[in-house]
Amino acid sequence: MSNHGEMAASGHWGPPYLLYLGKPADALAIKTARGLAYWRPEWCVGQHRHPDCALTLGFPDMGFAQAKAKGADSMVVGTANAGGVMAPETVADIISALDAGLNVVSGLHQKLRDNADIVAAAKRNGRTLFDARESNRRIPVGNGRKRAGLRVLTVGTDCSVGKMYTSLALERSMRRRGIATDFRATGQTGILVAGDGIPVDAVIADFISGAVELISPAREDGGWDLIEGQGSLFHPSYAGVSLGLLHGAQADALVLCHEPTRRHMRGLSHYPLPDLAQCIEANLAAARLTNPAVKMIGVALNTASLAHDEAVQACRDISDRLHLPCEDPVAMGVESIVDNLLACCAS
Amino acid sequence: MSNHGEMAASGHWGPPYLLYLGKPADALAIKTARGLAYWRPEWCVGQHRHPDCALTLGFPDMGFAQAKAKGADSMVVGTANAGGVMAPETVADIISALDAGLNVVSGLHQKLRDNADIVAAAKRNGRTLFDARESNRRIPVGNGRKRAGLRVLTVGTDCSVGKMYTSLALERSMRRRGIATDFRATGQTGILVAGDGIPVDAVIADFISGAVELISPAREDGGWDLIEGQGSLFHPSYAGVSLGLLHGAQADALVLCHEPTRRHMRGLSHYPLPDLAQCIEANLAAARLTNPAVKMIGVALNTASLAHDEAVQACRDISDRLHLPCEDPVAMGVESIVDNLLACCAS
Known about the structure:
CATH superfamily of the largest domain in chain A: P-loop containing nucleotide triphosphate hydrolases
Strand order of the largest sheet of chain A: 7-8-6-9-10-11
CATH architecture of the largest domain in chain A: 3-Layer(aba) Sandwich
Helix content of chain A: 25-40%
Largest sheet of chain A: 6 strands, parallel
CATH topology of the largest domain in chain A: Rossmann fold
Radius of gyration of chain A: 20 Å
Oligomer: homodimer
Distance between the termini of chain A: 27 Å
Shape of chain A: globular
CATH class of the largest domain in chain A: Alpha Beta
């Protein structure tokens, strides 16, 4: 976590965090804060909620000055707003947080630095603003050259099926086994969890694979990089990002992520989900361009919408059909996938 | 060509053109000007060369004021500079052109609008600057919905194998046959030739397919869009762009472009070129996601480096092997490819 703050051109940001929930439209609207609460609870000192907010992440409710007094460094704004505009009350709260001495980091589409009032408040308080969906780094064009180290990339049948959670669950499991591993973030929530990374869907198209080469450089310690995937080769809107990720990652191993109750590709009611076997074959074929030895080593099933019995049965069915370990990283863990990874790929 | 100037937020640009050659390092350095000279000679009133420039595009040499007097509207700067910096003498010439009353359009990586002296000169002369490698348009995320019209996309074994020339040759041939067709540009030279388009490799990664949907909208006249391809599914640096293009194009027909003397992928000496049959299969498989009826209808071979006999033989060999028409669009035309297109796909 030593990289905190290096991405911010203009100053430091990082934990301890105050999680800003505001007045969310639904549970999905707080997914960035939820990701931090789940994966880095030790970094979170409290949550800030609008009086009408019915959701909670289980942390103490506190105001901005109180959070600062409790040691918070930065407030995390992850609320997704309908309509793509930052709500006036969110802007007002961000300014209050800056006035209370907190830095502010955001996973919103709308940039903090595009709001003149927010920028002015940061300036007068000497605070840092960090937009996690934006990359200010100079990214080289990908070169495809073989680099040292071992890498796992999560791929998906669709967007939002659990690629970040799976990568982080692999990191946790492997670290517990004493294996050197680093989660490499490619999306806004992952970047806040990792304290570093590049939002690959926000880079210029020519530099997708170069961005992935940059965040997962050569490593000589025998350890693993666990690279967060994005999108799906079968999503007509975003497949270019997924292919650039596959090529830049030079993955030794892929894990396929899937949500078994999804009826159609996210946002596209006219596109069905791909067959799992077809999806595995397409990802392996594409990944072989930069690593001919790549293997598919497991399926991570997001069973949040299933009853426990159904979830266990769904994993068993997929495992039998594809001859791969299949688990829900959140509900069941990833031990059988890690076992297979180490059996297949460890040198 | 009625779209000229619509892309420029700040004013008009368009033909007639003065082609600026400057002092090019080699023939490749003037490829944008050469593309215009080849495909739109009727738009070019002259060329401007440094005294040391040994290359010519065959137009009368003239100064900036002289070009303006001959009716030139815009000067085209397409010279690629080594090192990625605009040479001081190029900057000085651009300012002189603006002072002479010409608008300036550029296909350079370096932006005209990033140079304060150039911007000041444009302002004081009331002239327009247009950077063809930049997109200022609001681009929606791709939606993959089937849209009316017929589309051909050129794909390649590699970058720089003739995809733009092939698309333009198809447009010329089909127009001569009385078929309504429009070249849809995706790169800086193509955009200057078409007077419109979006440089898809310069858009944000999430919007690649959306950009292609935007430049090739539904058409109800029974005519064809001929979409300029970019990169290659087999180029580790740029394949994401190529896949987004395939999905956004919803192509009814693909033409594979290839340069038979190329020893390795452009810029990557450690990557061999893909086998043609494998390349065709991979492109068709990816394209089927948004158009299951897509067909490969021919191979365009760039035989500029071969003797005539060798070129004819190379086309014959490929044609026999792949059971597809194979021609060099520049040296031989594209009539057999168009014949096959109309036989396979015309409704």
